[in-house]
Amino acid sequence: MRLRLPAERPKEPPTGYKIARLALSQDGARAGFTGISLGAALPYGTLDAAHCVYGRRHTAPHRRCDCGFHCVHERAAAQALLCTAEHRGAALLEVTVLGAYIRFERGFRYARQRVRTVTVRPCGCGARASVLVDAGWGRPGWRVVEGACGACAGRRMSLRLAEFARRAGEGLTVTAAHPESVPGSPAEAMGVPELVAEAALLQARLDLFQGELARLAGEGPGEGTGKGGG
What we know:
Blueprint: E1 15-25, E2 31-34, E3 47-49, E4 69-72, H1 75-81, E5 91-103, E6 107-120, E7 131-139, E8 142-148, H2 150-153, E9 158-160, H3 161-168, E10 173-176, H4 186-189, H5 192-219
Parallel strand pairs: 6-10
Antiparallel strand pairs: 1-2, 1-5, 1-8, 3-6, 4-6, 5-6, 7-8, 7-9
């Protein structure tokens, strides 16, 4: 006897959240995304269909395979993935789940998706990202890009967020996250009061160090031993 999962027929396509790397085609004409796990080798577009990463001919998502797009139900769950070191350069995506899907406790595995919004993380210096710059690596035919501020972008290849959205098409919206809204960002970890307190502590330590140095220099050789020379 074969058990079947209950069929769902929602009035509106479900919404999910995921993280991905942003990418530009080699000629710069197209913008897309590359996954962070099994699907990392197959960049996808704003509106795209999933394919089996193992090269099998079945339609994704197949119940006896782990192919298909993946997303989670909660935005916070996707944001938590951005805390790991290997995913710090990834962006947060809000997607519409299309076609057949399999529902799990934390998310979906599904056939097609539309990326609706992209939220780019702050620059590595803590400032809000204003451009996307070459991350220094990529996939065959694709260059991975990540958020940066104008000062840190320097002379590297850069692209405005709105321009990335235009090249990605399908009405995609790309915005930059406010540094204070990103857990663990430098702006959150070190605000003005914290920086003032840290500076005061460093100054106190410097004063103590200079006092010890002056004391040692004042004693000199043979001083402070309690014995006089003959």
